[in-house]
Amino acid sequence: MSTPTQSPTFGNAGTPSFNDLTSAGPNITRISKIIVNYGEVLDGLTITYETASGPKTETHGGRTGNEVTVTLSADENIVGVCGNYGFQSSVYGTTSINQLQFIIVNKSTGIARIAGPFAPTRTSTAFRVIGEVVAFAGSLNSNGRFIQALSCYTK
């Protein structure tokens, strides 16, 4: 496998931060499931990675608000991530990921589907990452309750 490339970080990079390419290990083969928690902003992500040594699950942010599970079949890959980020003074008083969606393609059939958008549309800055997503990185607000910044590793 080629070395994954990290996208720019979208949002307000800060601490605590996470990097699933490091914590889940270098032998990630694919993403099999993502649980998205959201309300006014992206509260949290729980990502299950398939690795050479078995499944590894990484949880980031809060488990509050709406919860949606996105399950990928063995033939599916996330080939794009898009969303919005911006300052939310009326909600949390800081920059956060305001909306997120995943573009998923079945590599056997070529059929694409979109999961999301998760969280409401807001006036904010749009972002997108194109390429087969193999891992996520980012940062949380100071109490770890929501995601302030997000980056993707693609191959």
TrEMBL record:
Q: Where is the Jacalin-type lectin domain?
A: 18-152
Q: What PANTHER family does the record point to?
A: JACALIN-RELATED LECTIN 19 (PTHR47293:SF15), JACALIN-RELATED LECTIN 3 (PTHR47293)
> Please, which domain of life does this record's source organism belong to?
Eukaryota
Chain segments carrying region Disordered: 1-22
InterPro entries reported in the protein's UniProt record: Jacalin-like_lectin_dom, Jacalin-like_lectin_dom_sf
- What's the protein called, per UniProt? Jacalin-type lectin domain-containing protein
Q: Which Pfam families match?
A: Jacalin
Q: Which organism is it from?
A: Cerrena zonata
